[in-house]
Here is the input.
Amino acid sequence: MLYNNFKDKKISALAFGTMRLPVDASGAIDEKRTFEMVDYAISSGVNYFDTAYPYHGGMSEVVVGKALARYPREKFYLATKYPGHQISDSYDPADIFEKQMEKCGVDYFDFYLLHNVYENSVNVYTDPKWKIIDYFLEQKREGRIRHLGFSTHGALEVIKRFLEHCNNVYSDGIMEFCQIQLNYLDWTLQSAKSKYDFLTESKIPVFVMEPIRGGRLAKLDEITEAEMRRLRPDESTAAWALRWLQGLSGVVTVLSGMSSLEQMTDNVKTFETYKPLLKCENKIVKEAVERMNDSVPCTSCRYCTAGCPQNLDIPMLLSVYNEMKFSPSVNASMRIEALDANKRPSSCIKCGKCVKVCPQKIHIPTALSELDEALVKMPKWADVSRERAEAAKKIKL
Ligand code: SF4
Ligand code: SF4
Here is the structure.
């Protein structure tokens, strides 16, 4: 297993993300198979395990905690997250944190994250009324959190705003690491490159989530797969996605949300040796991205925004449009719900002023109208949050 340094720790380059654990016919976590995966991970040198309060209806923390309790505490690093991204009338970090300790059966977390700092939750996390960051800094002083960081699906501007707040109100470096969605497709599709560049320039260690994009990059088009097999007959398609990440310095660990022992065996094999993509291999990946990506080519130049009578943040809306087109998810739609009603795509009056100045010739009103239609089909994040809070209440330990 490859390892990377993080402060005084050596962290395995592959981490076990536990949001997609194996499940039985009823949808409950299959504990036997999960335990097997945890055992295999530990015996292979994986030492970082990432869970979160809402994963698997709140049961991921419980099952992962049980699986890890069979090992000495110093054998693994456990990470979990505070769900301030869920919409709620009030936020009580102490209540959630104590429950998480109990659910996981530990008396400290090695890594603790503010879950998904995005366009809406950034206001929750920075609101002095909830004292969220203050509380977790206090837990860190007491040794119940060893390292504090955050994950994000938000735009780069949100990450900057959040870190600026942390620096101004507290001090530089209180957010010790940042977890972002990073893979060769999102490098451009979700502007992950700009986030990665900013974080590495700011000397904030990057933890990677969705390296295979929920399995999307484990199966590609026939032309690409044939090329990959020709060059690397013994390698899976998923291995290419992981090896692409090996080429990025500043990445501490890659969290793969593995669902089977087979996936884990394959990923562990990839992280036994450092083998970043060669130039010719990068070319194959780039061509694959071009084939699978029919997104609008917005470069965020913002030439269009000054003349928009509705004052819409067009590049931001188009970035969500691209994401929704490729793989609709609440992570994308929640960013639109965070906007005031008059800043959402439905507010476009189709005046066409933006189209005239767009150097990429994007037909923006059409894209916004399609985005609006796609959003109607998505569940509301407030409803999802409510369901998750209800599920958490029902957990019996
Ligand atoms: S078409 Fe829509 S997005 Fe474009 S300038 Fe007019 S109102 Fe703004
Ligand atoms: S002008 Fe075109 S490319 Fe530039 S930000 Fe607007 S939509 Fe994107």
Remarks:
- The chain has two domains: 3-285, 294-397.
- Strands lie at 3-6, 9-12, 14-17, 48-50, 77-82, 109-114, 145-152, 178-181, 206-209, 251-256.
